[in-house]
Predict the structure.
Amino acid sequence: MRIYTGTGDKGMTRLVGGAAVAKDSDRVESYGTIDELNSWIGYAATFMGKSYEDEYKEIVTIQNFLFDIGTELATPETNLRGPVISEEAISWIESRIDYYTDAAPDINRFILPGGCRLAALFHVARTIARRAERRIIRLNTTVMVSPIVITFVNRLSDYFYAIARYFNFREDVNDVFYERSAEVFHKIKEKGL
């Protein structure tokens, strides 16, 4: 089986359904950045040892969601058969963000990206997720993008931030605070109910 088609030699590519678009179109930039993010977290996951088997399974779940999102972004509205991810995906990722946030120590200032290797790799994933979100928002100005996709990609950067802090905590590596940061995060305390 050949994996090259020759259609890209003139700067064009085909979407799901066969429509041709320029390789630098907003649509291709959107799903291309999702593909980049998926590849990066696949690389980052290779550094997870046996003590992170559950977290590795989560990353594989996210990779599957990203593949679904990339497929949706590569499919013109006329070919879509409905959303490829559901509201449950958002609830799931929010529950994982809450879990990792609760597991790491509370902070009230900005931190620098870094720490242990896994934390540093997932901080890079966080920035790629933010770029993917910007590309998708730009695409959404000309074509309809599922609000679920937009929300899920927005939550991804929070997820990668939370899991990066969790990895530093598990590896007994302190987060490094931004030296000139004022107090920016405030824990919300429940009033006596």
Q: What stands out?
A: The first strand starts at residue 12 and ends at 14. Helices lie at 26-45, 53-73, 87-103, 117-140, 147-170.
